[in-house]
Design goal:
heterodimer; A: six-stranded mixed β-sheet; five-stranded antiparallel β-sheet; 56% strand; globular; B: mainly beta; four-stranded antiparallel β-sheet
């Protein structure tokens, strides 16, 4: 079964707007990671947030983590057409592997 | 560095045929993984390996076998392909468990169609 579940499953916004994606998970984790997948390609790591962190930034990306609610959010500010992709959260519970959610498909309209 | 490479990129099989997917990484990573990706299902772990000569089952291992004879290579085998194995297969690798090295690096994927 999937550990992480992203919400929404699909999101369409205008270029320049902010995009927010959410991830919920079920068990305790060591860290949570976000990946991006362009159509027909492999996944690319974006950012990692540890269980003792609440917020992390990387360029136009902001990730938050609420371990009490077992949820995380990924915010992409000032979106660009090139941000069009699927975004996945992955939870690392310390068993030598991570578990991926089903992803959010983001479309940024120029 | 080539990173993680997968061979072949695309393959069509008939039901009952066998094939092997090859994954190679040149980053000296200890851990390697095979996933399948299906519409609406995200990535599901098939098998993984935490070192040369060791393998373990993931979430959906039935119908697949793996081998890790060399540290840089991880092979995924289908002994008797079924239409349900039509999917996109991704290989990934990462360093062993160490703070700051948890990132997985993915290959470009292999599209498999079983008729």
């Amino acid at each position: 079964s999937q550990q992480g579940e992203e919400d929404p499953q699909a999101l369409s916004i205008q270029e320049g707007e902010n995009a927010t994606m959410n991830c919920s998970y079920k068990t305790s984790i060591n860290n949570l990671q976000w990946y991006r997948q362009n159509s027909g390609r492999g996944l690319v790591h974006l950012i990692l947030i540890r269980s003792n962190e609440r917020e992390k930034h990387s360029g136009r990306l902001r990730v938050t983590l609420d371990t009490s609610k077992k949820s995380s959010s990924l915010l992409i500010t000032a979106s660009r057409a090139a941000d069009t992709a699927s975004y996945f959260c992955a939870t690392d519970a310390g068993y030598q592997k991570v578990t991926f959610g089903i992803g959010t498909k983001l479309q940024v309209i120029p | 560095n080539a990173g993680v490479t997968q061979t072949p990129k695309f393959r069509v099989l008939k039901t009952g045929q066998s094939m092997t997917l090859l994954c190679a990484q040149d980053m000296n990573h200890e851990y390697m993984y095979w996933y399948r990706q299906d519409p609406g299902m995200g990535l599901r772990l098939i098998h993984y390996s935490v070192g040369e000569g060791t393998t373990a089952k993931g979430e959906v291992p039935d119908g697949y076998n793996v081998s890790r004879l060399k540290k840089q290579n991880f092979l995924l085998g289908l002994e008797s392909a079924a239409p349900s194995q039509t999917s996109v297969y991704f290989c990934a690798s990462r360093h062993y468990r160490q703070r700051g090295r948890e990132t997985q690096y993915f290959g470009p994927g292999t599209r498999l169609l079983v008729l």
